[in-house]
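Q: I'm writing a short explainer about histidine kinase for a general audience and would like to include a description of its predicted shape. Could you first generate the structure from this sequence?
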Amino acid sequence: MKLKKTIDLDPVLDDREHYLKKQLYSLVKTDSSIFDFLQVGALDGLWFWDLLDPENVWMNSSYWTTFGYDPEKMPHKVDSWQDIVFKEDLKNVYANFASHSKDPSCPYDQVVRFKHKLGHTVWVRCRGMMLRDEKGKPIKMLGAHTDITDIKNKEEELRLQSAFFEHIIDGTGLGTWQWNVKTGETILNERWAEMIGYSLAELEPISLGTWLEYSTKEDQDRSNKLLKDHFNKKTPFYECEFRMKHKNGEWIWVLDRGKVVSWDQDGNPEWMVGSHQEITKKKKDFERNRLFIEQTPSAIAMFDNKMDYLAASQKWFEIYEIEDKEILGKSYYEIFSKISERRKKNIVNCLKGKVIKNYEEKVKTKSGKFRWLSWELRTWYSNDQEIGGLIIHVSDITTIKKEEELKSLLRVAEDQNRRLKNFAHIVSHNLKSHSGNFEMLLDLFLQENPEIEDNEIIKLFKTASSNLSDTIAHLNEVVLINTSLDKSLVSMELKDVIDEVVRGVSAIALESKVEINNLVSDEIDVLAIPAYLDSILLNFITNGIKYRSKKRKSHITLSAVKTKNYVVLSIEDNGLGIDLTKHRSKLFGMYKTFHSNIKNSRGIGLFITKNQVEAIGGKIEVTSKVNQGTTFKIYMKYEKN
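A: Of course. Here's the predicted structure. Afterward I'll give you a sentence or two in plain language.
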C-alpha cells in the first residue's frame, strides 16, 4: 500500500539545492545510524503511532527520559503517556488531532504540559504529521517532542517581573518614556501626559518635539549637557530637574531620570528608557528652606548627597573665612581642601542617617586664628523619605570658652569668699567669748537665786543661751573646714577607720536594733584628713540609726569600689528614706530637716559633712525612696602609683 503523506519527508531535490543536503538525505535513507543520531541528538522525544491499531505507539528512549522514566520499563501503549499529561491539555491534544485528521493543512503543533516523575511540570512543544493511504485516510502518525521548559520558566519570570514593575510604576505615579536616540522615535505612557494636564491622545503625534514644546530652552540646554555626559559614559545614568508648562498655564517641576539600555556596534546609544516624577512641592519646600538658611543669623550650610552646596548662610562664610561667594553647586571638598579623615568619616556616617555632634572643637582658620566651634551634622530627607544630603550647623563658642575659663576661676574664689563673708564676722573669738560669758553669768545668777530656776522667763533665757552657743559652734566648724584646705591629706585604710567609728556607736546601734555591716576591702585606702573622715562616717552612720524604720529589721551596709579617679564609698540603709523630688535641692542646706517626727534633728549634719567631703577633694551623690531607704555615695581621692 502506498502511503500518502501530509508533509513530504523526501522533497524533490533540484539542481539549486546544496550538494551536502542531497548527500544527507541520501544517507538518512541508506544508513539508519544517521537517523538514530538525529532523533536522539536533535529532539527530546520521537513517537510513531499506528492509527489502525490505536493502542500501539512506539516511543524512543529520549521520549521517556525527558519525563524522568526508565525507557526499558515503559510499555509502547497509548495509555502510558496519556496518564502523565495535564487533563486540560489532553483535551486540546485530541481536539488538535481531530482538526489535523480532518484537514491536513491544519498543523498538529501545540504546547503540552507533562508531569515529571519527580513531580514538577515539563513543557513540551509537540508536533506531528499524519501518513495517509491513497484515499487520504490517516493510517500512521509521526510525532516529535521538544522540551521548552526553560523557555516557559523564563517567560513566567519575565511576566512576573513585568507585572512587578508595572505595579511599582502605577503605585508611584511615574510617567515613563522610551526614546530611540538614533531615529527620534518616542514612546510615552498616559501618566506622562497627565502630569502636564493632557491625555496622551491630545499630544498625538508623539515625538521628541512633544517634550521640547512644553519645556524651556534653558532647561533643554542643561538636559542636553547631562545626556551627553551619560552617552559618553561619564555618568551611570541621566538625571535632570526641569520645568514643564502645564495645560492650566502654570509651570511644574519634573525630575527626569533615564538610562541607555542598548548600544550599537560602534558604541553609540540606541534605545534609552526613563521616567518623569513631579517634584513641584519638593522644589517649593526646598526653595523655602534655602532662603531660610541664607538669611538665618546662625552658621548653616546645606548639601546634597554628593556634598555639593545647596545653600549657605552669611555667618557660615564669616566663620570659615570663605571669600568665594558663588559656592552653590561646588563641592564641600573643593572649598575645604584640607579635611581630616575623621571629618570625612563623619560625613559618610551622617549620609547613612546618623546624627553627628561635637560640642567643642578647636580649629585654625585661614587667617591663622584659633576658634572654638560647636557643630552638628544631620541628614535631610526628600518627600519620598530618601536621604537628600546633609545640613551642617556650626556655633562659634570661642567667647564662651574664654568666659567659662574665667568664670571657673571666679566661682572658686566667690564660693570661698561668700562663706568667709557670711561667717567670718560671726565666728570670732569675741562672739564666742561673749556667748560664753553670757552663759556663765546666767549660771551664776541661778546659783545665787535658785528659787527662780523654774521661772518661765529664766527657762527661755537658758534655752536661748544654749541655742546661741550651738549656733556659734556649728558656724565655727564651717569656718574651720574652709580654712583647713591647706592641711596635708594622708593615706588611710578605709576599713579600719569604719571599724573604729562602728565600735564607737555600737551601744547606740545595739539599743536601736540596727545591724551595721562593713563590707569594705582591707586593700582600699583613701586620701583624707583623719578628723574629717571620722566626722563624715560618724554623721552618715548615726543618721542611718536615727532615721531607721521601726516597721522592719534595720541595717546599715558600707561597701566600696575603686574607679579610675575615686574610691566610691556606698553607705546604704533601709530606713525612712527621703522624698528627693521634693527635697533634693535643699538636701545639704544648713538647718534643713525632712522628718518632723524625729527628735533632736537640727539639720546641720549633712551641711557640715558635704563641706568636709569637698574639702578633701571629693563629692557626694544620693539615691533614696520614701519608706525604702537611702544610699549615699561618697567619692574620695586615693593615692595612685
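A: For your explainer, you could say: The domain at 283-396 is CATH 3.30.450.20 (Beta-Lactamase).
Q: Perfect, that's easy to follow.
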